[in-house]
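Pasting as-is:
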Amino acid sequence: MRILLVEDETTLAAQLQRVLTEAGYSVDHADNGREAWFMGGVQPYDAIVLDLGLPVLDGLSVLRRWRSEDVTAPVLILTARDQWHEKVAGIDAGADDYLTKPFHAEELLARLRALIRRASGLASALLQCGPLTLDTRSTRVTLDGQPVSLTAHEFRLLSYLMHHPNEVVSRSALAEHLYAQDAERDSNTIEVFVARLRKKLPPELIETVRGLGYRLNLPGAKG
């Protein structure tokens, strides 16, 4: 899953980027409104964390531009404690949730997980596919109750597929959601990660749809 972090305060941005990366997300960072507006409009993010007090172009203007351009990624805005009117304006401009500074990293992660779940039409933090369970809170994956050891890229790939069950996802789309903007992307490596996952999971779980991509098959569902 891929996140856009928009924060101009250097220390806080570095802290949040570390927290998000450790939680299993691929993270891009923008430190001004104009850069954020451009990145959010051309890259497929699963969620966006947006500070409102930005240089060059303020966060509310960025958010309004995104929504007018049909950018549908869920947006979590960050606001100062005494700026209640910013919360109202942010929600009215198209934000999905807000978090007041200062905040705990755990609350930020919980709100992001909830936004991503809702965007995927999921209700629980536990994603289930037959005997396979992925806990989005702990980034723990189990098969028949036993832990499955995954690399960061394997986890991100599996997480994205489990957030989009029974959907055909192209290799290029998976690559876009696995890697940060500056990372070298090769959709062919997706085949390698899928092959590795199949060795650790029931082989029929991830189906190759010839010429289109991959689909995570829920037990009892018809593709």
